[in-house]
């Protein structure tokens, strides 16, 4: 069962790398870009891993039986669903997706696939997939702190991204914001 879990993690990672490289090759000249939120989200991710690892050692009483089939299956399902949804979102954005927040020449709002309902479905997929990854720590406190720190990084990134998209795409993006939710369909 653990082999299936690690295959799911590897497939998500390979899909992520492959799609991001493909999108970078397809993209057009960038008019504006912002690197700060990328650095911020990377620092937050490192802090999340360190904090979760420390909590796992400091609070061993909050461990759960991670290697039991039910936990392994739940972890694999969360990673597969989240990773798959994120990859679908990246593929739907096509040449407009990059790791760095940016506006390209001839940029427009994408309203296809998961973007019909959500403005940031790749982050929704990321958070669901990382919820599965958080279970790999095998500790309740570690999983909660890891996911909360990642959420903080993603929410900051969304603020930066929406501000840049509003500035770059104007009224079309403002209308899109009114018609869609950020991360959770029908909720927020």
Could you characterize the architecture of this molecule?
With 188 residues, this protein is mainly alpha-helical. 67% of the residues lie in helices and 5% in strands. The chain has a two-stranded antiparallel ribbon. Helix 2 (36-58) packs antiparallel against helix 5 (140-169). The radius of gyration is 18 Å and the shape is elongated. The mean pLDDT is 89.
Q: Give unreliable regions as ranges.
A: none
Lateral strand order in the biggest sheet: 1-2
User: H/E order of the elements?
Assistant: HEHHEHHH
Count of distinct strands: 2
| Cα radius of gyration in angstroms | 18 Å
What percentage of amino acids are in beta strands? under 5%
What is the structural class?
mainly alpha
Number of helices: 6
Helix content: 55-70%
Task: Give the tags.
188 residues; mainly alpha; 6 helices; 2 strands; 5% strand
Concise synopsis of the structure shown:
The chain has helices spanning 2-26, 36-58, 69-93, 121-134, 140-169, 171-179; strands spanning 30-34, 101-104.
What is the fold's blueprint, element by element?
Layout: H1 2-26, E1 30-34, H2 36-58, H3 69-93, E2 101-104, H4 121-134, H5 140-169, H6 171-179
Antiparallel strand pairs: 1-2
């Amino acid at each position: 069962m653990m082999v299936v879990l690690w295959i799911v993690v590897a497939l998500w990672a390979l899909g992520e790398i492959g799609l991001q490289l493909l999108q970078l090759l397809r993209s057009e000249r960038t008019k504006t870009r912002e690197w700060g939120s990328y650095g911020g989200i990377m620092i937050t991710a490192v802090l999340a891993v360190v904090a979760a690892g420390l909590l796992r050692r400091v609070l061993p009483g909050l461990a759960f039986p991670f290697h039991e089939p039910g936990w392994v299956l739940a972890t694999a399902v969360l990673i597969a669903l989240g990773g798959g949804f994120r990859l679908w979102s990246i593929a739907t954005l096509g040449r407009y997706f990059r790791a760095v927040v940016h506006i390209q020449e001839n940029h427009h709002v994408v309203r296809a696939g998961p973007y019909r309902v959500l403005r940031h479905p790749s982050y929704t997929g990321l958070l669901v997939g990382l919820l599965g990854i958080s279970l790999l720590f095998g500790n309740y406190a570690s999983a909660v702190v890891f996911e909360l720190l990642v959420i903080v990084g993603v929410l900051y990134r969304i603020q930066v991204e929406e501000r840049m998209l509003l500035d770059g795409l104007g009224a079309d993006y403002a209308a899109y914001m009114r018609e869609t939710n950020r991360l959770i369909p029908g909720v927020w």
